[in-house]
Structures are given as C-alpha cells and as structure tokens.
From TrEMBL:
Keywords: Aminoacyl-tRNA synthetase, ATP-binding, Cytoplasm, Ligase, Nucleotide-binding, Protein biosynthesis. This is Asparagine--tRNA ligase. HAMAP family: Asn_tRNA_synth. The gene is asnS. Its EC number is 6.1.1.22. It comes from Anaerobacillus isosaccharinicus. It is found in: Cytoplasm. It comes from the Bacteria. Residues 130-429 form the Aminoacyl-transfer RNA synthetases class-II family profile domain.
Length: 429
C-alpha cells in the first residue's frame, strides 16, 4: 500500500511504501535509523540487519542525506516518536542519491542558510513554520467564507497609491507610470459597495529601506472591507478573526508548535475580547515609563513592545492623530484631530499585525483630504464615485500574514515566515 507519512496511522501493523527523502541517519553494526521526510511529515525508519537482505542493510548504511527513495516497511505504533509511529523497514529502492548536500546537521550562519533557502525549507523547523503559515491561510478562508464575505482580487499593478507613493516600486505601464500595490484597500472599498462584505488575500510591496526583524519588501496581506459597518463593529470582527486563526493553529498544528518549541499557554489566552487603549493613554503610559515621545508622534517598535508587555493578549491602540494616519480615515465625530482607527499590537514584542479604520464616507471631506495630501482628484475620480453614488458608513482592516506567522510561531525574524523572503539586500534565490 503506497501512502504518506501523515497517513501512516491508518495502517498500523501493515506494510506500506512511502516516497521520501533522507533527512538524517545514524547506524551501528546491527541497526540503522533513517530519519525520513516526505513533505507531509517526518518518521523514523528502523532497519535491523538480521531482518533484511544484505543489500537493503548495505543501502541503509551508505545512503546519503537528502537522497530520495521508496521505503517499504511495517507501521508500528510508538508513543516515544513525535508522530506516534515509526517504520520497521523491509525494503529500500533508491531513486536518486544526493552528493555533498550543503546543509548538514551542524550549525550554519544565517546568510549561508538564506543563500540556500531553496534547500533550507526542507528542514524540520522550516517545515513546521510553513505548515503553521498554511493553517493560518486555511483558517482565514474558513473564517471569512463562514461569515458571508466574498473573496475579491484587487490589482497588483496600480496607477495610484493607497497611502502616497513615497515607498512604492515604480514601473512603466506602456506609456504610463504604474506602481506595485502596497495595499488593495481602495479597490476593496469599491468591491464592498457591490458585494457588501469582501476580503482579499495577496502580495503587497513596500520599497522601504528597512532592515528590522519585522520588515519584508514583499509580503502578503489579508484585507477585509465591510459596507454598513462602523469602527466598533470593525474591531469586533478583528477580534473574532485573530482568535479564530490562533485557536485553529492550536487545534491543528500541535506537532509543529512542539517542533518550534512554542509556549502554547500564551497562545491559548488569545480569545476575544481584546484590551483597548487610546493613543492619548498610550502616550501618557510611555511618558510615565521613561520613553521620550510627544503627542502627535507615531509609535516605533520599542513603544509598541512596551505597551504590549502590559497585556497577555493582542491590544488595540485606537484614535490616532489624523495627521499621522492615511487620508481616507474618518475623523472622530466628537474630536476632529483624531480618527476612528486602531492598530492591533501582538503580545511578546511582535508589534503591529493589523491596521484598520472606519473610512471617510462624506465626499466633501474626502475632497478636502485630497487637497491636504496633494492627491490628484482626477487620478482618484473613481474612488470619489464611491461617495457620489450611494455612500454608506464602511470599515476595513489589513492583517500582515508574515508578522502573524512570526508571532504565532515565536520566531525572531520574519525572514523565516515566507518561503522565499525579499529583503533589502536579498533577491536570491
């Protein structure tokens, strides 16, 4: 019976064949232990000299790391094994023998591993990170599909910017200027006016010359937008979504979290409602705790971390000054100098994972914002049309997938959260 490592539990005490690679091995005179991986998981194959042919045992002793093979054996239940099973090997068919595989079980430097990212992905730790990433994506689709959202795909090439063109990648679109999208939000607002509740999931690009552990040049964003939804309702959706994602990982990725050494007790606390603090109170808190920051300044990583350390769940910072936020955010009706917005800050020093707001729905106010931000009304004519024809209160947010993966996995740097990271100094492989 041909199967995969993830499915061996269905065949306890039966003989199966698995296509796999040798992740590692060790052997003594009479027994060889093969660490096998097939993409779905890892399992140990035990080859006993007295129970197999001389040829099979000789192959088990000589086979090299990352060689590919078909392994036949009997599935045994084993409580000591991470997966709960191991394989008593009866036969080996070598498909391809790898020579001098560069990533060995010894320690390697980060730059070396990044140069070999196409191979580093095969390691048990990177495998676990990608499985958690996949579960966050799967849970995202489940959450929005079950809550009546429609998936809409905004363009990646745009003629304008959601938040100004300062940090955008410029390209020529035949005889016009174009930019790689930094957000699909404006287009999602148009989609919400047609479909009510929508979400997008796609790549976004920021040409920021930043080298921090939280920044990538190319990253993936989940951007929901909702018609007839105000600021408060928007926060509730964010709480429900993030709680759902984290609980899904806890339910479906226990083995991966164990491989990563993640303290799951901290993740178990991620259930809404989440605490909230206004920008005003956040500034006051920071000043009282020795941070040099004035009202009107944006928060940096040390500020976000200091605030988050006061809570064991993600925390919302709400009502930022209008002057430091995007042109489309709706002012607080009771106070024009702040906007109806919130950033969700992850605990444990992982920073902002969500930015969201209620959007301006008044056409005249939006036109004023265009003038203040030196934006061309001609370029954004289509965006104004959303306020001209049946404008309604509407809200939305954007979640950065890679920062969320880093937080849930407990990683030190976002470069491990995406298969092939694009960094300030890296476009290879």
């Amino acid at each position: 019976m041909k199967t995969t490592i993830s499915q061996v539990g269905k065949y306890t005490d039966q003989e199966v064949t698995i296509g796999a690679w040798i992740a590692n091995k060790r052997s003594s005179g009479k027994i060889a232990f093969l660490q096998l991986r097939d993409g779905t998981g890892f399992i140990q194959g035990v080859v006993v000299k007295a129970e197999v042919s001389e040829e099979v045992f000789a192959t088990a002793k000589s086979i090299t790391q990352e060689s590919s093979l078909f392994v036949t054996g009997v599935v045994r239940s084993d409580e000591r094994a991470p997966s709960g099973y191991e394989l008593t090997v009866t036969g080996i068919e070598v498909i391809h023998e790898a020579v001098d595989y560069p990533i060995t079980p010894k320690e390697h430097g980060t730059e070396f591993l990044m140069d070999n990212r196409h191979l580093w992905l095969r390691s048990k730790r990177q495998h676990a990170v990608m499985k958690v990433r996949n579960e966050l994506i799967r849970a995202t689709y489940e959450f929005f599909n079950e809550n009546g959202f429609v998936k809409v795909d905004p363009p990646i090439l745009t003629g304008s910017s959601a938040e100004g063109t300062t940090n955008l990648f410029h390209t020529k679109y035949f005889d016009e200027d174009a930019y790689l999208s930094q957000s699909g939000q404006l287009y999602m607002e148009a989609a919400a006016m047609a479909l009510g509740k929508v979400f997008s999931f796609g790549p976004t690009f920021r040409a920021e010359k930043s080298k921090t552990r939280r920044h990538l040049i190319e990253f993936w964003m989940i951007e929901p937008e909702m018609a007839f939804v105000d600021h408060e309702e928007n926060l509730q959706v964010q709480e429900q979504y993030v709680s759902f994602m984290v609980q899904s990982v806890l339910k479906n990725c226990q083995l991966e979290l164990k491989v990563l050494g993640r303290d799951t007790a901290k993740l178990e606390q991620v259930v809404g409602p989440f605490p909230r603090i206004t920008y005003d109170d956040a500034i006051k808190f920071l000043q009282e705790n020795g941070h040099e920051i004035e009202w009107g300044e944006d928060f940096g990583a040390p500020h976000e971390t200091a605030i988050a350390q006061s809570f064991d769940k993600p925390v919302f910072i709400t009502h930022y000054p209008a002057a430091i936020k995007a042109f489309y955010m709706k002012p607080d009706p009771n106070r024009a100098d702040v906007v109806l917005c919130a950033d969700m800050i992850a605990p444990e020093g992982y920073g902002e994972i969500i930015g969201g707001s209620q959007r301006i729905d008044d056409m005249e106010l939006l036109q004023e914002r265009f003038q203040e931000h030196n934006l061309s009304e001609e370029t954004y004519k289509w965006y104004l049309d959303l306020r001209r024809y049946g404008s309604v209160p509407h809200s939305g947010f954007g979640l950065g997938l890679e920062r969320t993966v880093a937080w849930v996995c407990g990683l030190d740097h976002v470069r491990e959260t995406i298969p092939f990271p694009r960094l300030l100094n890296r476009l290879y492989p």
